[in-house]
Amino acid sequence: MDINKLHRITNNQWCIEPANGMHVQGIIFASEELILEMDEKVYEQVCNVAKLPGIVNASYAMPDAHWGYGFPIGGVAAFDPQQGGVISAGGVGFDISCGVRTLHTGLTAQQVMSKQNELADILYKNIPAGLGSTGIIHLNKKQMDAMLTGGARWAIERGLGDHADLERIEEHGCMQGADPDQISDHAKERQKNEMGTLGSGNHYLELQKVVEIYDANIAKKFGIEMDDIKISIHCGSRGLGHQIGTEFLKRMVVSAKGHGITLPDRELACAPIDSKIGQAYLAAMRGAINCALANREIITHLTRQAVKKIFPDIHLELLYDVSHNTCKLEQYEMNGETKNLYVHRKGATRAFCPGHPSLPPALREAGQPVLIGGTMGTASYILAGTEKSMHLAYGSACHGAGRNMSRRKANKLWRGGRIMHELADRGILIRSPSMRGIAEEAPAAYKDVSAVVNVADQAGLSRLVAKLEPLICIKG
Question: Which of 5, 258, 287, 426 is the S-S candidate for 148 at Cβ 3.0 to 4.6 Å?
Answer without folding.
Answer: 287
